[in-house]
Amino acid sequence: MHMLALLSLLIGVSVARFDVTVTRPWELQMRYITVVDSANNYTEYKLAVTYAVPIPTNTTPEDLPVLMEYLPYRKDDSMYPIRHNYFNYFASRGFVYAYVDIRGTGGSEGKRIPFEYSSDIEIEDGIQIIEKLTTMQWLLATGGKTVRSNGRVALWGQSWSAFNAFIIAGKKARDPRLAALKTIVPIHGAVNLYEGDIHYMDGIMHQDEYILSVDQENALPSYGFNGAGSVDAYKIDADFVANRWQAYPWTFFYLNQQLKDDFWTNRTAFFSGPFSPSNPDDFTMPVFVIGSLLDGYRDSAVALYEKLKAKNVSVKMAMTPSTHSLMDYVSPGPTWEWRAEVAKWLHYWLVDQSDASLINENEFTVYVRRSGDDKNTVPGYWRNQQWPAAVNVAPTRFYLMNNNLLSSVAPAPAAASNHTLQYKPAVGTEMGVWWGEAALGDMAPLDADSLVYDLMMTEDLEMVGFPVVRLRVAATSTENLTQLLAHWHVRLENVAPTGQVTHVTGASLNGAYRNTSAVPAAPSYLQSGQFYDVTFQLHFTTWTFMSNHKLRIAITNALYRMMWPSPHRMFSTLRVSHIGTSVDLPLAPALAPPSPVHPYTRQPGGAYTEPADGWYFAEGGYPYLYVIAVDAATQRRDVTWNASYFSNCYGWIVSVELDHKFSQSLTNPSDTTWSCYARQIYEYVGVTNQQSWSQLYGYPSLAKPRNGQVPAPLRTFTVQTYMQLRSNVTHFNAALQRMLTRSDGAPLNFNISESFARLYQ
After folding, report:
1. Does pTM surpass 0.90?
2. Mean of the pLDDT values across residues 316-344?
3. With helix as H, strand as E and coil as C, how does 604-646 read?
4. In this structure, what DSSP letter does residue 191 have?
5. Same domain? 116 vs 187
6. What is the C-alpha to C-alpha distance for residues 88 and 20, in angstroms, rounded to an integer?
7. DSSP 8-state code for residue 372
8. From the CB of residue 650, how many other CB atoms can be counted at a distance below 10 Å?
9. d(CA 696, CA 653)
10. In sequence order, which residues have a C-beta less than 8 Å from that of residue 165 and are 6 or more positions away?
11. CA-CA distance, 286 to 733, in Å (whole number)?
């Protein structure tokens, strides 16, 4: 028992539980932190940081913990209206919130980091920042009061900042500068940066709207250390041109990293090393990890929980029903007030460890899904789960049979036969952009181009875990090739009595990496017509299969546009009614929802807040246009994606447009094109207060004219990026053009094009 808790029992004093409903005022400060680059002649760089600082209530100075978020997502314009929601929540509950722009991005000095997350530059800077935060103090404008760091720091963040939290935390045992780092709260991060991240999902190349937009955002000028609040922000000078404008595009960088080699292994050494149970004393830091069932990174949350639990590290996990978004403000719902649970965790590890219930409740919590008709809400309920579930649930093995059914009876050797599937490279648009995203859509059209195998449910059974599928498959060239490339995609689905087919989970396999766990891996071509035994661990899922519904396994060779199509014309063959073609499903009798309902059900997301001097408006949704069409004349299937929105930050109106078009030949699998465009218009009008605009809707949409109520801009500049990536059988050909126009100077242009050998993709 903790000494404070024991003392309270001995003297009969009750310990007050940390109450997240009690709030306090806070103020915003913009400063910088200096880091030193020892690998570059000890050059100093100033990194822009925004602090949300609680105002002391009774005493001054007051010692408070620091919660750090570390991103390249432009804290003072692109993210400012959105992140205000989290400044407000955590600062008003007694945490100093520090949001830092990574070197070379946002308001920070230096050259833009060379690639996404985990570069040595980013990680070393982050370690120095944490060390400096332990002795920081803030003089507040309110009453001249002072807040000091209490010497304890937590790292939190969603996606990118979850990645760097993993890696920085993994270095703590060997770096005394991280002594103050007491816990991390990673949300929607990945621990496998080859198959688990977005560039080569499940080992297959992937491109989406994020990949262009992050390159565009990080080619924008710096707003400076004091934010965007003046006409003189966003200097377009020689430093900007050298360090941002002419920076090598990240899309190009990752086209040079197609193989599963040491580049990827070195970036994930934190997981195979410090986080591994084989190193029990290396990593002992408490972790609260959050994943989501409609997010492509969800496996990592479970993997991290398992490893840290095996090391006897204090670890907590929540698996929410949402997408790659923060859960207090998400669609589809239900929303969840995750911030309350995180605040209790942080209070225990950073402030007061007298109330262990703050961290012991809801240790492994999952949202158990089921089918339903509500397109705005994921049906299901929250519950606490014992994990690994295998201690309670032995997987049931079913075999894929020649009658397109699943059978629990092992087939006789003589019963084996073949099912064939013609490779259609343009099928799969129903699945959206990554695993889980399209969970509320209808997969029936995709199933028409798939091999499907059904199991009729005679009772309600639920699944929590990782289904495993084993296939005996062959790919046969229709071009007389002796060697070729092929992908396989396996989906687990629910078929309702109405015929609605709902995606539950799935996984893909790049055939070049069949049955290899070695790193660096040794990819190889498939021999045409040769059978291979391959295994898929489907991504983590929860689901309740109800009586009179069907459980379905569906198999294709394409999931366009999620996965870049393999280049060769072929058909694939699946050996069915064969002991090598099966699925292991962790099914168990369905449990009733908890009564009373789980505490997370009683924590709906709080009200979304934005600052008066910075607000955000999305026009018509995100995206506002999503069209899938087949052009009969060109024999291509095109997917068009568009978004438009604007924000007002410190008097700068920022108008954004994103346009993407994926185009796939129906007859030539290697002929795939991704064309994309981004435009951001910055206008300084000097007006910040949202209430001064009587008609928000429609301005300053790029599709609609300026109206008379908007002040004339004192300064404007526009940044546009065009990019195209097109493949053939042997190469990826990429071209990018950046253009900057401005009201106070000459235009700028940057053009680059390269051809990259196609390496087992």
Report:
1. yes
2. 93
3. CCCCCCCCCCEEEEECCCCCCEEEEEEECCCCEEEEEEEEEEE
4. S
5. yes
6. 13
7. -
8. 20
9. 12
10. 70, 155, 156, 157, 184, 185, 186, 189
11. 45
